[in-house]
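Each field is set out underneath.
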Amino acid sequence: MPATVRGFPAEFPVRRDGRRPWRYRLTAGFCRTLVRVLFVRRLRFEGSANVPIEGPLLVASNHISNWDGLILGSFFSGTLFAMVKREVFRPAPLAWLLGGCNCFPVDRGTADRRALRISLDILRGRGRLLIFIEGHRSRGRGMGPAEAGAGFLVRRTQAAVLPVAIWGTERALVRSGGLLPRRGQLRVRYGRPVTVSGRSGQEIADAIAAEVAALLPPRYAGIHGRASSPSNGRPPARRP
């Protein structure tokens, strides 16, 4: 098990009553204001009515930019937990802040049993957990292979899955040769909750990735595009 992250709360979650800690509320409010100022009317959400108020719910998204977690976490309605790579939790004050925002570290280079235990506890406690289905940021705009961890969590908890697609963030505030960076158009699309089953964690994770890819424009779907998904042997997702 990886060593404890310095500054991360000894007791996690900080609150166990289903409500947001004050650090979460203040940080999310600040981030929403920042994003709205930077992008004005360039950020659009679709399907927000599909988001369940209660869990257990695995919120699965693609990942193409460091903006993704900031936008998904700060604009998501209600309380959300997020698994975040360990490297982000430095220095200690930042680890303290992120812990209060319901984020917890995962060591992507090992079998991180502590992160796995926290994830299972959240879902078994009817919480809502955000993960990036590929396990890391994509090198390009197209989706890559899914990590089996998401499928393992679904198998163990029987949690419903909310597929989420985000795009345009890879071009956010990118220098375009002028004095000011290009802001771009940002889109977030929520699908309908689905129930996913399969013979293995990898099979379930692949089915989840296909649900996410189906919400994306074709150029972002990568290896999970429509051309590869209709008859590839993955079990179909069921909508409640």
